[in-house]
Amino acid sequence: MPHSASSPAARTDVELKAQLRAAGLRVTGIRLSIMRALRASRTALDATALDEQLAAAGEHADRVTVYRTLNTLVDSGIAHRIDPGDRIFRYSLTDHAHCTEGHHEHEHPHMVCDACGAVECIEDAEVVIKPRAKAETTPRSPRKFRITQQSVLLHGMCERCGET
Q1: Which of 52, 53, 65, 107 has its CA 20 to 30 A from that of 36?
Q2: What is the rounded average pLDDT of the residues 112-137?
Q3: Domain assignment present for 1
Q4: How many domains does the chain have?
Q5: What percent of the chain clears pLDDT 70, i.e. is strictly above it?
Q6: So what's the pLDDT on residue 144?
Q7: Mean of the pLDDT values across residues 38-67?
Q8: Do 83 and 38 touch, CB atoms closer than 8 A?
Q9: Radius of gyration from C-alpha coordinates of the chain
Q10: Above 80 in pLDDT, residue 135?
């Protein structure tokens, strides 16, 4: 993941704490530890990888606490959940530099490595869905949807796996 000044990697603990408070959440050690791990990672992390990173850092949390914390961060808009189709969710911090109070701008495509399962955010890309030009003979769909979430996954091989 590229790291600009507004990216999650550039945030300090002070900013992470402020983000938790702004979301109406208490600042806890486990929340900060998980946010730090997500901030430091180049790829989106699954709960097992997070658990291993926490243990390596001397933080001990049971798996239920890790999952609950991740769900809380996702529900509050601080993190987002990526489902690459292998039944293992990956998590990443959102980039709130482009967010407003009512809309989170973290709908960017993700690259999924089919060899190792790594999932990387492609933060400098934008997905735009435009309606096709309507032909006069095309009937209009009677259904209308309000999009609440979008997910674009690009599958291929990461640089590391492509070298072998």
Answers
A1: 107
A2: 73
A3: no
A4: 1
A5: 71
A6: 74
A7: 90
A8: no
A9: 18
A10: no
Look up residue 146 and give its amino acid. R
> Which residue, 77, 83, 78, 72, is CA-closest to 151?
83
Question: By the 8 A CB rule, do 44 and 82 touch?
Answer: yes
Given this model, what pLDDT does residue 107 score?
63
Tokens, residue 94: 């959102």
Collect all residues with Cβ–Cβ distance below 8 Å to 93 and sequence separation of at least 6: 8, 11, 35, 38, 39, 78, 79, 80
Q: Going by DSSP bridges, is the β-strand pair 119-121/90-93 parallel, antiparallel, or unpaired? A: unpaired
Residue 158 lies in a domain: yes
H/E element, 31: helix 29-40
- Give the mean model confidence (pLDDT) for residues 36-41: 90
pLDDT band at 115 (very low <50, low <70, confident <90, very high): confident
The CATH number assigned to the domain holding 114 equals: 1.10.10.10
Q: What does the alpha-carbon distance between residue 127 and residue 136 come to, in Å, rounded to a whole number?
A: 27
In a domain, 2, yes or no: no
